[in-house]
């Protein structure tokens, strides 16, 4: 089997998480600067087989698209052009940043470590991936 890769897209940074090859365990992979995201994904997919991209879908409480969806649309077009053989599925990402921060508190990270926004993005991507795996 191939991996599933989840993307928590952000204006500055993007969190990335992947499954193991059996698609059982979701693990944070890294956080990259968004402007370097496509080159990073090209490099990663040249080394690892990826069968699916999950991209977080920010929504409002009333289920309408969030304002940041405007920034994600061009990325989705570029992603589908660059990786036409890998399907893309959107996953509701409401509350993932808050859940990521709470996960950091629960795991005992000190206040200074919890201010690491890159880590929050990576954990958010992992939560997106876990929610997809649970629903599967």
UniProtKB/TrEMBL annotation:
Keyword Cytoplasm: yes
Domain YqgF/RNase H-like: 2-100
The enzyme's E.C. designation: 3.1.-.-
Source organism: Jejuia spongiicola
Enzyme class: hydrolase
Free-text function comment from the UniProt entry: Could be a nuclease involved in processing of the 5'-end of pre-16S rRNA.
Protein name per its UniProtKB record: Putative pre-16S rRNA nuclease
Top-level taxon: Bacteria
CDD domains: YqgF (cd16964)
UniProt keyword annotations, A-Z: Cytoplasm, Hydrolase, Nuclease, Ribosome biogenesis
Localization: Cytoplasm
Family: Belongs to the YqgF HJR family.
Pfam family, one: RuvX
Main subcellular location of this protein, as a coarse class: cytoplasm
Gene that this polypeptide is encoded by: ruvX
Keyword Cytoplasm among UniProt keywords: yes
